Amino acid sequence: MSLSGTNTGDFLAIKPGVKRFISSVLLAGLFAGLVLTAVQKIQVTPIIAQAEVYEEAAAHAAAIKPASAIASLPPASSVSTLPPSATEHHHEAQEWEPTNGIERTLYTVMANVTMAVGFALLLGAAILLRGGISGWQEGLLWGLAGYVVVFVAPSLGLAPEVPGTQAAPLLDRQLWWTATATLTAISLALLVFGRHWSLKLLAVMLILTPHLLGAPEPQIHGGAAPAELARAFIVATAIANGLFWLALGGAFGFLKRQFGDPKG
């Protein structure tokens, strides 16, 4: 068999739909990323700035203790018996981070928009698998589902943490988060689209599994910031993420319709 004109025509017929999909993903991601940045600037960033003050104070206090211990040791043992971490702590190069102000805001915008485009791609792919979307109202429902999958369910075990909070090992948290988000997404799909009662029962079992097993716990609980600041951060982050996902889903549904693709 050889390539025919029909195959070429089919490819050209599909191509505009792909371009509309990509345009919807990029524009929805840009819009949602800017919304998230604005909400973070108003609600989340001030809390992080306060928590960083407590974190720096705690780090400074921890650095003073080894120094005072060194001063109390006899001169002959001050060099040979001290662990390297005590003598080299202050000489470690600090990790680079953007300066506060315009530079930090620009990096935040780029990070949020990049993340939003990635989530828009996943959300759009899920919508296409279900046969498309009718408009921004249905997009809000998809955005709400994304909020539950990506933020709400994982946060029940791993709540958002302000700087200076004790946490479990990063890899353990990442694995638990990924498993929880994946099982929650499957569960929601089975609950909404599954027709047989056994599928809905399976959905309930899947959505409960990671929480019954439990999220990874730190060896030492607590943090530098006060408890009320940590609670305020959880609330502010929950609001920011909720608005982000509603903006992402609504924008994607609106753009798909505007690009002449009312149901797909």
Briefly say what this structure is.
The chain has 264 residues and is mainly α. The chain has helices at residues 5-72, 84-88, 102-129, 136-155, 170-193, 197-213, 227-258. It has a domain at 24-89 and 101-167 and 218-258.
Molecular structure report:
The chain is mainly α and 264 residues long. It has a domain at 24-89 and 101-167 and 218-258. 73% of the residues lie in helices and 0% in strands. It has helices spanning 5-72, 84-88, 102-129, 136-155, 170-193, 197-213, 227-258. Residues 1-6 and 75-93 have low confidence and may be disordered.
Summary keywords:
264 residues, mainly alpha, 0% strand
Q: Count the beta strands.
A: 0
Strand and helix order: HHHHHHH
Main β sheet profile:
none
Low-confidence stretches: 1-6, 75-93
General form: flat
What value does the Rg take, in angstroms? Answer: 25 Å
Oligomer: single chain
Distance between the termini: 32 Å
* Residues in helix, %: over 70%
How many helices? The count is: 7
Average pLDDT for all residues? 82
Give the DSSP E fraction (strand runs of 2 or more residues): under 5%
By secondary-structure content and strand pairing, the structural class works out as mainly alpha
